[in-house]
Amino acid sequence: MDKSGAAAVDYRGLGKDVFEFFTHRTAFNSAAYLLPTIESMKKENPRLRLLDVGAGVGSVSATLAEVLGPDGHVVCTDLAPSVLPQAQALAESRGVTNISFQTADVHALPFEDGEFDIVHCHQLFGHIRDPVAALREMLRVTKPGGVMAAREGDKETEIIWPPLPGVLKWHEFDSNVAKAHGGTLTAGRQLLAWALEGGAKRDQITVSYGTWLTSEEATKAVYARGISKVLTGPTRQNALKFGLSEEDIDEICRDTLAWADREDATWLMLQTEIIIRK
Ligand SMILES: C[S@@+](CC[C@H](N)C(=O)[O-])C[C@H]1O[C@@H](n2cnc3c(N)ncnc32)[C@H](O)[C@@H]1O
């Protein structure tokens, strides 16, 4: 954890299955609310510059670069330097070239005021201690006339069926880890309040709500394999440190994989999305 209380995810040594789990996100399933705005801004200015903050493995950033088109450019950033080579490799493997990579803390972005037309983050504010300061900083680097956009889940709205004990145990463990790192489980419902506290006026903000849904067979399998690899791979020691026993880990892995095999299995969560016009 750095001195601002931010927790960078340590992606080092995570295996292929965990990587697959993170890279499942794209601009189409995770930033769809922003795409019409990008399309209309692109008509005015095809040379849009977009900053993605807390971008992780950069799978959303890479598809945003594709949406911007060859004249636009994405700067993909994260606090964790260890993830950026993975993000770069992912973009290269998809033939995306209008993207660059840089380490950056959302609390002190290494960019000038108004440097970007679009400043975006996905699932970041729920993981940091001071979302209002982060939001102010993101607004600072947004160009007048540009937009800042964020999408945050609300973990307390998670709905899981069937409620297998190991699956519920994972939900509790994941929430405890987020809280221990200073995160907020109700980020989704607080996002609009944070935006107002960060200085945006209500009439500058468009709010929409979506869901994060895992019910398709392929998505469930990726998700379940990712969870079991997070717990059994190099991060197993962290899981033990956060209070899980060896038996808990076995139960979570067994039940999560069993859950993914069931036709009636569903896992969903409310997502709040905001676009602030500066
Ligand atoms: C849940 S992940 C989301 C990654 C990506 N946006 C996505 O949706 O796939 C949160 C990311 O925020 C990064 N992060 C945490 N604190 C940060 C900070 N202070 N500044 C920038 N990034 C940060 C973590 O390293 C992690 O990659």
Automatic annotation (TrEMBL):
Coiled coil: none annotated. It comes from Thermothielavioides terrestris (strain ATCC 38088 / NRRL 8126) (Thielavia terrestris). Residues 47-160 form the Methyltransferase domain. This is Methyltransferase domain-containing protein. Belongs to the methyltransferase superfamily. LaeA methyltransferase family. It holds the Pfam family Methyltransf_31.
